Amino acid sequence: MAEQKAHAPEPKVALSTASVYPESTATAFRIAARLGYDGVEVMVWNDPVSQDVEALRRLSDHYRVPVLAVHAPCLLITQRVWSSDPWTKLQRARSAAERLGATTVVVHPPFRWQRQYAREFVRGIGRMSEETEVRFAVENMYPWRYRDREALAYAPGWDVTEEDYPHFTLDLSHAATSRSDPLAMAGRMGDRLGHVHFADSLGSAKDEHLVPGRGEQPCAALLERLVPGGFDGHVVIEVNTRRAMSGAEREADLAEALAFTRRHLAPSPSGAREAFRP
C-alpha cells in the first residue's frame, strides 16, 4: 500500500455464502458457525433468504455469526433481484448493510450494455459513498474469453484501478482470469483496498475460485502483506465447492481455506513483513 499504518488489527475472515452453492444461504451461516469463521458475506441472489433482511438477521442471531458484508446482486442471473434498476439494487444493498451492521457493500462495475448506468457509475458510487458509513467496494473483474477471442464485458472497464473509486474489492481469482498480478493490483489500490475476495487459481480463462493453496496465485504473499500495509477491511473466503461430493467434503474444503488464511494472516515472529508497493 502507499503508506504503512501502525498497529493495524488482524483482519476478520468471513465466509461468502456463495462458497456453499448450490446449498442455501442458511447453510452458509451454519457452516461458518461450526468452523469458527468471524462472519459471513451475504451474496444476494435467487435464494429468497439472501434477499430478506429480517431472515438474515434471524440467522445471524441464531448462529451468532455477524454479517460483515453484503454483495449486491450484480450477476447476470440476478438482473431482476431487488428491482431491474441497478441504482435501486445498490440502495437496497446499502440499506441491508446498515440494518445488519455490515461495513461493506461489494459491487461489480456495470455491464457494457447498461449504458446509462455505466456513464454515471463512477460519479454515482462516489456520491453514494458520501451518504453512508458503509463502504462501496468496487470489485476487479476480467475480460470474457472464448478460445482466441476476448470480449470486454464491463464498463468503464474490468480493471477498476483505472477509475477513482473510494474503495476497492480485490478478487484473486478474477485477477488470475484477467492475467493480472494481484500484488501489483493491490499496490495500485493502495489505501483504498477495503475488501478481499480470497481464492486461488491455476490461471485458466475460467473464473476458478479454488481453495487457497491449490493453485498458482500468490495467496500467502498477499495475506502476509495486508497487515503491514495497514489493511483495515475483511478477508472473505469465496471458493467454488460445487464439485464436493458431500456436505462433509464441502466443510473440509472450507475448513482448509480458513486454516490457510488464518495461518498467513498471523503476525510474523520476526515482525518483519513487506507491505505493498504502489
Q: Can you lay out the helices and strands and say which pair or pack?
A:
Elements: E1 12-16, H1 25-35, E2 39-43, H2 53-63, E3 67-71, H3 86-100, E4 104-107, H4 115-129, E5 135-139, E6 144-146, E7 149-151, E8 167-171, H5 172-177, H6 182-189, E9 193-198, H7 219-226, E10 234-237, H8 247-265
Parallel strand pairs: 1-2, 1-10, 2-3, 3-4, 4-5, 5-8, 8-9, 9-10
Antiparallel strand pairs: 6-7
Helix pairs in contact: 1-2, 7-8
Architecture overview:
The longest helix has 19 residues, at 247-265. With 278 residues, the chain is of the alpha/beta class. Mean pLDDT is 92; it is low at 1-6. The chain has helices at 25-35, 53-63, 86-100, 115-129, 172-177, 182-189, 219-226, 247-265, and strands at residues 12-16, 39-43, 67-71, 104-107, 135-139, 144-146, 149-151, 167-171, 193-198, 234-237. It has 8 helices and 10 strands. The N and C termini lie close together (6 Å). Helix content is 33%, strand content 16%. The strands form 2 sheets. The chain has an 8-stranded parallel β-barrel with strand order 1-2-3-4-5-8-9-10, surrounded by 6 helices. Helix 1 (25-35) runs parallel beside helix 2 (53-63) and helix 7 (219-226) crosses helix 8.
Short structural description:
The protein has helices spanning 25-35, 53-63, 86-100, 115-129, 172-177, 182-189, 219-226, 247-265, and strands at 12-16, 39-43, 67-71, 104-107, 135-139, 144-146, 149-151, 167-171, 193-198, 234-237. It is an alpha/beta fold. The termini are close together.
